[in-house]
Amino acid sequence: MIDVAVVITRYFGGILLGTGGLLRAYTAAAKAALDKAVPVLYKNFSVISITASYSDYPKIDFYLAGISCILDNIEYGTDVVLLIAMPTEDFNTLKNQIIDITSSRAVIKFIGNRYDFIKV
Hints:
four-stranded antiparallel beta sheet, alpha+beta
C-alpha cells in the first residue's frame, strides 16, 4: 500500500490504560482497519452501451463475467441494453469480442470516459 494514513480518535480522556495500554489499543485499531482494507487500482475507464437481442445476451453476460469491467445498468426492453465501464486500454478487445460472439448483431456505442477503480 502507498499513500496510506491511519487516524484513530480517542474519545475517553482518562489514564486507565496507561501508555502501554494506549499503544496496544491504537496498534490493534490500526491493524483491524488495514486488515479490512481492499486494495484498488485507479484507471481511465471507457463507458459504453451494448444493445443486444435476448438470444445474444447470455453470451455477452458470460464474456463480461470473465473480464474486468463495471456493470452500471441493464435495461430489459425490446432488446437488452447494458451500460458498462471498462479500462480504456481494453476497449478495442471488448468491442472485437462482442462483435465476434454476436456475429455483429450487437450495437456498441461509446458514451464517454471516467476515472474509476477496480479491485486488485
